[in-house]
Amino acid sequence: FYFRNKHRPFLLFVSFLHVHTPLVTTEKFQGRSRHGLYGDNVEEMDWMVGKWLLDIIDKECLKNTTFIYFASDHGGSLEAHRGNAQLGGWNGIYKGGKGMGGWEGGIRVPGIVRWPGMLPAGTVINELTSLMDIFPTVVHLAGGAVPQDRVVDGRTLLPLLQGTVQHSEHEFLFHYCGVFLHAVRWHQKDSGTVWKAHYATPVFQPEGSGACFRRGICPCFGDGVTHHDPPLLFDLSQDPSEANPLSADTEPL
């Protein structure tokens, strides 16, 4: 692929089977990690990204002309297991995980960008973006324009990455579980506060476990979710782990 397209623009999309059950890990990487088969799987994916993608891009002298974006489509799966061994990821301070359309642990993933010579190294951007932003970013890089005959929810990432703007263009982001709207976040521009309203949340099993261990994955509707009227409201700027829902008494605004 690289040899055929190295002298003209190309788009290469690589979707890894790795860090998803079943954790198919080659013999070379089994037992390499201190974190079991899941960790072995992560290490093999890391090796593949370096060996099959980054090294070849460098070797073909495409490093300074290739925009690379690495991310995940959701947070770590908490319920994945084999027997009594937990095989899922870890979402840090964030509540919930994969399959949970509203909680931060299901939504919030790191995005890693590499474009030497064009983007400064070592920069950390805490603004929330979306995988929807990949489409307009690619169009921007290709010198095109996004379609004007429909609503395109994504925003090009280039101004944010280049430092010409300080904040994401997303004032609102809507978080679905399947086709069901579970939560909405609002980045209040004048104050910088980020609010999150939950209309439905999964029923954790066991209660308080932070996941749906008895079901294997949290459902999006039916008896597996709790509907909230009024919605659960959190100030993510002060409470990123969504531990303290606000009320009219605690938050007059």
TrEMBL record:
Signal peptide annotation: 1-26
Record's protein name: ARSE Arylsulfatase
GO molecular function: arylsulfatase activity; metal ion binding
Family: Belongs to the sulfatase family.
UniProt xrefs under Gene3D superfamilies: 3.30.1120.10, Alkaline Phosphatase, subunit A
A GO cellular component entry from the record: endoplasmic reticulum
Keyword Transport included in the entry's annotation: no
Pfam families tied to this protein: Sulfatase (PF00884), Sulfatase_C (PF14707)
Domain Sulfatase N-terminal: 5-143
Coiled coil feature spans: none
UniProt KW keywords: Calcium, Hydrolase, Metal-binding, Signal
Source organism of this protein record: Pterocles burchelli
Gene symbol of the encoding locus: Arse
Transmembrane segments: none
UniProt cross-references to InterPro entries, sorted A to Z: Alkaline_phosphatase_core_sf (IPR017850), Sulfatase (IPR050738), Sulfatase_N (IPR000917)
Swiss-Prot/TrEMBL cofactor(s): Ca(2+)
